[in-house]
Structures are given as C-alpha cells and as structure tokens.
Amino acid sequence: MENKKPHFGRVFVVSFLLYILYFGIIDTIDTSIDNKLFFLLISPAFLVLGILTYYAFYYDIAKYMLFFFIIIAMLYLSITLTLVVGVLIYFSFFYKSEKVRKIAKIGLFISGFFAIPLIASFFGYNSLYNYIAKTFSNMTLPSKYEKYVALSGNTVSYEGNTMKMLPEGENKLIEFAFVNQKNELIISDDEPLGYLSKYDTQGNRIDTLKIEKVDGIDNLFDGFYGDYLMDFKGKRYCSWAIDGNKSFQSMEQLSDYEKENIIDDDKMLKGKRMDLFSYKDENIPKEESQRREKIIPQYFKVESSGSNTSSGIGGGSISYRTTWEEGILFLSIEVNGKTFHLKKGMTMFDEENLLKSSTIYRTISGGTLEQYENYQVYTHPKWNYALFAYKNYRFSNVYRLFIIKNKKG
User: What's the CA gap between 34 and 1, in Å, rounded?
Assistant: First the structure.
C-alpha cells in the first residue's frame, strides 16, 4: 500500500508541540550532571512519542522521526533550530525535486553531527562534549596566539622580556602594597607571621621586616596609618616603613602633629594606607573606558561550558539559571618599552564578553593604576619599574605581584 504524503503543516505543528513538551520538562528540573539518572528514566518517553508519530505520519518515516526527537530534545534552547530540523526532514523525504532532497539531507546530516555532543552533554557525559568543544577550539585557534606564554611561575619571559614575582622567587601571595612618602614600595605577604619588604625607586629590595610572635601569640597589627605600623591594643607603633627602624615605640612618643594626622580619639583611621590593588575604597575617582593602554585583551578560547539552577531567596518558586564558559584569555601587557603576550585560564558567566569589558583607570599615591578584569598595572613617575598584579578571581583579597623593570637604552 502506497503511503500518503503528510502535510507540511502537520510536520510543523508536531515539531512545535514536541519542542514545548520537552522544554516544559527540562525547565522544571535542575539540568546539572547530578540529574543524568532522571534523563535516563524519562528516555522511554521518546519511544512513546516515536510510536505516536508512526501513526500520525505513517510507518515509513518513524525511524527518521525518532532521530528528530533526539534533535529537538537537545536543541530545546532554540525553537528556531528545532523548526529548521523539522523542515529539513520534510524536504529530505517528501519533496519531489531530487536536488532539493539531497541538499536537505546534507543539512540534516550536519545538524545531527553537531547534536552529538549536545546529546552526550544532556545525558551527563559532559566530558565528551567538552572534549569535542576543546578539540574544535584548538583547531580554530589563530596561529598568532600559539606563541603566547602561560602566566605562571615566579618568572614570566617573552621574547627576551622578563617580569619577576615579588618577593623575588618566593611564590608568595601578596595581601597589601603601598607607596610611602619617599616613593618606596612596601609590600606584605599574606602570612600572619610573614615578611614586609621595601623596594627603592629602581625596584631593588632594600630591607625586610619579619612579623613575629609576641608573648606567645601572633602579632596582629592594625595596619599602616600614614607610614607607621600601628598596634592600638599594645599602644605602640613601628616607623620601619619610612626610616628603617624595626623597633616598636610607645604611641606616646608620636608628636602632636602625627597623632592628629594619623589617629583620632577613638583610634580610628584618618590616614590609613590603602592597598594599591584593593577594591575596598570606592571613593577614589575612576574612569571606565574601552581605551586600552597597558593591558590589551586579545582573544578568548572556549574549552568547556556548564550551567546550574538555584532557587530564589527562601527557597521560593523563582529559580535562576547560571551559565558559564571556561577557557583561556589571551592578552598583552605593554609597559616601559616591554611587551608580554600572555595566556591565563578565565571563566565567563551568563554570556558575558570579556573582550568588551571596560578598563578602569585610577590615580593612587601619585601613580596610575590600570585595571582590566583580574589584571592590574601600576606605574609611578618616580619609578624605573612597573607593577603587574593578577588575582585568581576579581574580588579576591590577595594577588600575585610582578615587577617589570624599564627597558634599558
């Protein structure tokens, strides 16, 4: 018995209804990898839909419609793509022109090829999807980015230019950095009993101060007020940052002028030193711009992606879907006559575009701070070097700090 030719309108309507059905199912659950068992349990539903299609559009296309169900299940985020696949199926098997049918079959094959990693992803095999995505990303990476060097280790070198981590070669996380009245750099590592280091205007370390225990307890200070390291509880201060004296003096020895300009009656800050690379003080004027001077983002290479869904405040019915893409950001640092082409792992959330992020410029302690995402460059007119800092994530309280000395000649 000759099969009847199904109407195009029926193909369109069934495609649309199946899209709405599957979208409704997915939208009510968390699509994280932890729910792959759920997807396996509901997979027989697609077989039922295939049987229904068998009776709706006749037996000779049931096998193709099963493939179609898988396609629409994977493309639930885009109704346009789903309907395109439905149209391709119609033209592949029912259009009279053999030429049109061949073109449609090629399009259907291409759609199925790209659906394979999506199918694997939705059934929990995210590693396969990410492997395919990374392979494709490697194949399409422009050749000029292959020479970029990873931002890792204590020393980063690119084409004869070198930046070194501070303190030199110690692989330390820095918690605080500021410029004293003599235009010297003071930095502190993130250890409670660590070191303070001082650098001159040429970028040479000229002194250190070790923070030790006092009376068997950690020596916890209140920070630098002006150029003085203050211990309000112990009523003492240390002037090492400005004059190299490592001993602690009684706070009563401060002059009236120093007391007035450093602390008030309640021992709260009037002139507390601010970290050069901190985001805590939003009162400092800043300029946001697409202008790139020293930090120049170049390219973002996507290697994997994911998403999760979380409930609203109080566990209400409102839910929020967070998506992300993990990959490698390629960027250039151009400062003091030196250029570094670097690469570093980064994550983009909710379809953001790192390459369009604004650059922020601030004037701090007589110098200029340029900030792009997790990366910052600080230059000072009295220095023969620049500082480059990067954080693992933007609002971290600690960072890696590198020194880039001026190019000689």
Answer: 48
Contact 354, 348 (CB under 8 A): yes
**What does the domain layout of the chain look like in residue ranges?**
8-126
Q: Is the peptide bond before 167 cis (omega within 30 degrees of 0)?
A: yes
DSSP letter, residue 408: P
Indicate yes or no: pTM above 0.85: no
CA distance 319 to 307: 13
The answer to whether 148 and 345 are in contact (CB under 8 A) is no
How far apart CA 210 and CA 142 sit, in angstroms, is 48
Give DSSP secondary structure letters for 180-240: -TTS-EEEEES-TT-EEEEE-TTS-EEEEEE---BTTB-----EEETTEEEETTTTEEE-H
pLDDT tens readout for residues 44-83: 555 455 544 544 455 455 555 555 555 555 555 455 666 6
Distance, in Å, from the CA atom of 142 to the CA atom of 340, rounded to the nearest integer, reads 18
